[in-house]
Amino acid sequence: MTTQAESDRTATATTDASWFRGLGLGVFIHWGHASTRGWELSWQMTGGVLRQEPALEPVGCNEYFENAATFDPQHFDPTAWAELAWRAGARYLVFTTKHHDGFAMFDTGLSDYSVTKHAPFGRDVTREVVDAFRARGFRIGLYLSIVDWHHPDYPRYTDETITKPYVVGSYPRATPAKWDRYRAFMLGQLGELLTAYGDIDIVWLDGEFEHTEEEWRFDEIRAFIRERQPRALVNDRCLGHGDFVTPEQQLPMVPPQQPWETCLTMNSSWGHRPQDDTWKSPALLLHTLIEAVSMGGNLLLNVGPTGNGEFPPQAVERLEALAGWLEHNAESVQGVEPGLTLWQFHGPSTRRTRPGGGTRLYLHLVTRPYERVTVRGLSVARVERVSLLADGTDLPWSVQPRLKDIHAGSDDPTGELHIDTRGTVLDPMCTVIAVDLAE
Prior knowledge:
Radius of gyration: 24 Å
Strand content: 15-25%
CATH architecture of the largest domain: Alpha-Beta Barrel
Oligomer: single chain
Number of helices: 10
Number of strands: 15
Number of domains: 2
Shape: elongated
Structural class: alpha/beta
């Protein structure tokens, strides 16, 4: 007999994730009342995590929780957020509806600790963000932490019951009765998100690091989501039931077999911390996007808005830089597949099928070439054109078939393509060379 858990795993494995592959860039938005003080979301109260950067100055738990009463972002404009993110190439959104600190950024009927009831702002931030991004054409993802450090039945974090800095595996534990009440509360809030905000494309769970798989009963959580949003993808932090995997802060060494994304901060913080000046350069962020796409994944790039509701100027600068590059090169990272292997081309590459037949390869020059670019293992008789993607300028090129294929009289020999880049004006962010191959 097939168990319910086995049925759920089978259904999860067949969830259609084809639309997720090739999206390229997503925008992750971490926002909450902590931003008004320049605190990291949730982790400021623990002083960060032991041996994990960045180190954080610990804040008292009560002081942190009470700060929610100050949240009143007068410059909040989700339409402007959506417009900038779209121009920067993002095609899906993941918004933090509730982080570990328990502060709901949506209108929940199950708790008063929310943006609509506990904060002077009093508006359903999640609804406004979802409406604005959906109207612009984004796929919609909602982040929810399944832990709640504020809820009395979790139980609530106090300075006496937690370690500072946080030690993974060390947290206060509830009695069985309290745990059952808390889990019902968590599912209730998840149900609100799944039924009140229209079609949801992604449910991005977090917090699996506290409590066991047996306590969470992830098979039931996945079934609960499927009943309310049958087509929604769920990330791998719903342990054993994820539709895609989410390596954090670094690209994977080997592309995962499942659909995947890397979630990445622009500096070292998820929330708005003005003292964090470790901003990655626009070129580095772009190269990370290109490498993720060339490996068959997506990049979920984080923004932490200020307490006033604005994207920080450093984030705006980087999104604008991406927008400028994508204006001429978007087709090389959106809706494409992985291109060549590294022995063929020493850099990231992508490909797509041309509308009239044949293939277009995109070679991303993330390091500056010297005099020429070499591509190996191509069907060299099929090369039709080599050009700069940004402006269509033709580049000089030649091919060298393998002697073995020449001697065999092959009509479709493999070999090397040599592209002359001397005198070419290169893009300081990344130059893309398009190689058109006949069918």
